């Protein structure tokens, strides 16, 4: 709970003709109705006993953290009718013979349902011009002293993302808020795929900006991070292709204005896909670090991933749905059902480097939320629990040094660097995964019956633990490699021959002929919604490589008013 701290200003002002004691400290703006200004409640029964006596009447006392004030605007109030000055400073002159009063409006963040934020406003009036101006300048001073707020932003809009509403969403919902908050912008409407990535890599004058804004879906966000990470490495003299070098973290934060058909990264970091909420998180200067996985094949860089890397089921669903783009968003349901019925499994070897000395496991009941302690420490907290988890690690894995190896037949191999929650799957693929703990959750779904796979899939939407099934393994890892069976060396293949020699030979020959009943030899990787061109990959997690204008999903308070200092 925020404490008011030392008072900077205190005055008696009026809000809608009622007198309020208004105070400003470095952390809070509080307005509290004077007891001598009662509000008439015609329908409140006299014998009504409040259930929660400490809960204040929301009409009596309000408080707003200074960090959540969007802007302050000077108004002119003339006999009750107000005129706006469109956010710009305008000297208010006394008018002869008229009852002129001074007024100013504070715009601030108001929380609505389901993690949505709205821009609310309150207008204070007073008869003294000097007092009014003192209030306006004091609030502006406090806002200006907040160095985490962006002043200049570079905005990329994908006009073709989602329902092709990116430009309209930005112009109607976001740009007016940026103007009110005094943020200047350089806007680029992309003209072709990878326009934003290449502009960031080569042309953008990044020193002029405090952040980059992406208006689009997950594909557009992926373009932005590829451009920004690449550029940062080049500027810092790091080889972005290296599999071993530590990458330099990007200093510019990225804001996501959701305008795509899939906006999972926005949902996972803010809790909702709402352009206004995202714009307000940018304005107040929120910062949420995010882990990034680099994906290499034979020491060659392929892509970065921040959410899901999926081989088998999720790779097949994406490949199939790409061929059915004409179906619109329904293609994901269609391909999902088709791939579930097809029930392909794939053989290969997974090796991984378990995350050691961390607190938290993929099967925790706690969730990564705003101010997550685990992420604040980059996952580096030792505890008895994490040691116990390390001892419980999979029994049938071979370990060589730090690396562990698992060979088998898998319906799906998923690496979730965040929960991957979305409106369709509110728990996500790995509900306890963290945004910024330097790890990814490696989920192995071994070959099982269709019925069992369905049980696993259904658990993504139910309360049950989706990993509490015998054919599922989950490991929190810092790095992993996958080698499909058809790419394994001769000696590796010989080792496996005694298991299923005949069937394997047929699967090589018949991979395009499902009628023969054998599974295809390989699937493809779904990397944050893009198909990777290679199946044998080496994945490394880079802890907190980028930062978003977000704060993680906020925990909803049980009684919101208790967070109000006026209640105590
Ligand atoms: N001007 C443009 N013309 C064509 N493609 C573009 C343009 N700008 C960006 N793109 C590409 O469009 C792809 C999809 O964009 P975005 O993620 O914003 O929308 P989406 O509807 O969520 O996409 P998807 O359906 O693929 O998830 C991105 O991969 C991006 O590279």
TrEMBL record:
InterPro entries per record: ATP-NAD_kinase_N (IPR017438), CERK_C (IPR045363), CERK_PH (IPR057465), Diacylglycerol_kinase_cat_dom (IPR001206), Lipid_Phosphate_FormReg (IPR050187), NAD/diacylglycerol_kinase_sf (IPR016064)
Pfam families: CERK_C, DAGK_cat, PH_CERK
Any one GO CC term of the record: membrane
GO molecular function, one term: ceramide kinase activity
Domain DAGKc per the UniProt entry, residue ranges: 148-299
GO terms for biological process, alphabetical: ceramide metabolic process
The protein, known as: Ceramide kinase-like isoform X1
Organism whose genome encodes this protein: Pundamilia nyererei
Gene that produces this protein: LOC102197708
């Amino acid at each position: 709970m925020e404490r008011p701290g030392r008072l900077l200003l205190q005055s008696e002002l009026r809000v809608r003709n009622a007198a309020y004691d208004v105070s400003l400290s470095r952390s809070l703006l509080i307005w509290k109705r004077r007891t001598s200004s009662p509000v008439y409640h015609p329908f409140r029964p006299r014998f009504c006993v409040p259930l929660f006596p400490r809960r204040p009447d929301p009409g009596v006392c309000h408080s707003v953290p200074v960090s959540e004030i969007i802007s302050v605007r000077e108004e002119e109030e003339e006999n009750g009718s107000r005129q706006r000055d469109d956010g710009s400073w305008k000297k208010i002159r006394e008018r002869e013979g008229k009852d002129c009063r001074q007024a100013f409006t504070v715009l601030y963040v108001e929380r609505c349902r389901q993690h949505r934020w709205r821009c609310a406003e309150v207008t204070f009036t007073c008869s003294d011009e000097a007092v009014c101006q003192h209030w306006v300048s004091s609030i502006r001073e406090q806002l200006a002293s907040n160095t985490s707020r962006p002043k200049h932003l570079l905005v990329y809009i994908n006009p073709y993302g989602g329902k092709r509403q990116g430009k309209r969403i930005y112009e109607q919902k976001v740009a007016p808020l940026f103007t009110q908050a005094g943020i200047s912008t350089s806007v680029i409407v992309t003209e072709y795929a990878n326009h934003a990535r290449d502009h960031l890599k080569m042309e953008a004058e990044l020193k002029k900006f405090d952040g980059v804004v992406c208006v689009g879906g997950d594909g557009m966000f992926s373009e932005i991070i590829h451009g920004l990470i690449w550029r940062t490495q080049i500027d810092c003299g790091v080889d972005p292709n290296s599999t071993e070098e530590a990458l330099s973290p990007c200093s510019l934060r990225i804001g996501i204005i959701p305008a795509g058909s899939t906006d999972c990264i926005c949902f996972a970091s803010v809790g909702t896909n709402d352009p206004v909420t995202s714009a307000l998180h940018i304005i107040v200067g929120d910062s949420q670090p995010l882990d990034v996985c680099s994906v290499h094949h034979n020491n060659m860089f392929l892509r970065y991933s921040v959410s899901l890397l999926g081989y088998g089921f999720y790779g097949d669903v994406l490949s199939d749905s790409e061929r059915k783009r004409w179906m619109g968003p329904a293609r994901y349901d269609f391909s999902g059902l088709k791939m579930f019925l097809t029930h392909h499994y794939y053989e290969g070897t997974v090796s991984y480097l378990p995350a050691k000395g961390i607190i938290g496991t993929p099967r925790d009941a706690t969730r990564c939320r705003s101010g997550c302690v685990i992420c604040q420490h980059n996952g580096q907290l030792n505890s008895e629990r994490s040691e116990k988890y390390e001892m419980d690690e999979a029994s049938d894995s071979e370990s060589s040094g730090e690396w562990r190896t698992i060979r088998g037949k898998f319906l799906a191999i998923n690496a979730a660097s965040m929960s991957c929650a979305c409106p369709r799957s509110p728990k996500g693929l790995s509900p306890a995964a963290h945004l910024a703990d330097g790890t990814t959750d490696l989920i192995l779904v071994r070959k099982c019956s269709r019925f069992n796979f369905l049980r696993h899939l259904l658990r993504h939407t139910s309360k049950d633990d989706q990993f509490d099934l015998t054919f599922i393994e989950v490991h929190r890892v810092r790095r992993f490699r996958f080698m499909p069976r058809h790419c394994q060396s001769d000696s590796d293949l010989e080792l496996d021959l005694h298991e299923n020699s005949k069937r394997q030979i047929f699967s090589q020959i018949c991979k395009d002929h499902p009628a023969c009943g054998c599974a295809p030899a390989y699937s493809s990787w779904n990397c944050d919604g893009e198909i990777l061109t290679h199946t044998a990959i080496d994945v490394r997690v880079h802890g907190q490589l980028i930062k978003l204008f977000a704060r993680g999903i906020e925990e909803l308070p049980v009684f919101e008013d208790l967070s109000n200092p006026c209640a105590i």
